[in-house]
Design a protein that fits this description.
With 143 residues, the chain is mainly alpha-helical. The protein contains 5 helices and no strands. α2 crosses α5. The two termini are 15 Å apart. Keywords: Membrane, Transmembrane, Transmembrane helix.
Length: 143
């Protein structure tokens, strides 16, 4: 990996590790945009999607708090990194699918359509995050 890319990733990783709750709060409008798009047939306005996703983020914040408590007692950094980036990311993805499926099940979506939309919301978020990372890496390489 080029030095410029390593430096940029180091800065991004430092910001994310220093401000994990801020990152979660920033994701609320992004997730809300995707739920607004994928579940537009529910005819909820954008502010209702903001409230919906704020409630979803609460559980992720609680899980983050529990992991913070675990870090006090457990010092193996490799396991903690795996736990945080592996288990928490997987939990967040699966919880989001379950959350959206449960919430929008009362809006007359077919089960297949509801499951597909519930998967597409976090998948869209991860895809956009990936694309932003690639674009920022390309921009950083040019400088």
């Amino acid at each position: 990996m080029p030095q410029g890319s390593k430096a940029m990733m180091s800065e991004i990783e430092k910001f994310i590790s220093d401000h994990p709750k801020l990152i979660l709060i920033i994701t609320i409008p992004i997730y809300s945009f995707f739920t607004f798009i994928w579940f537009r047939e529910a005819k909820l306005n954008y502010s209702e999607h903001l409230v919906l996703n704020s409630n979803r983020i609460i559980v992720e914040l609680i899980i983050g708090l529990l992991i913070s408590v675990i870090t006090i007692f457990y010092t193996n950094s490799k396991v903690l990194v795996l736990l945080y980036f592996g288990a928490v990311t997987l939990f967040s993805f699966l919880y989001s699918i379950w959350f959206y499926y449960q919430f929008f099940s009362g809006f007359n979506y077919s089960k297949k359509g509801l499951l597909l939309r519930s998967i597409l919301v976090p998948a869209s978020y991860y895809l956009v995050s990936f694309l932003i990372g690639v674009i920022s890496a390309i921009i950083n390489l040019k400088h």
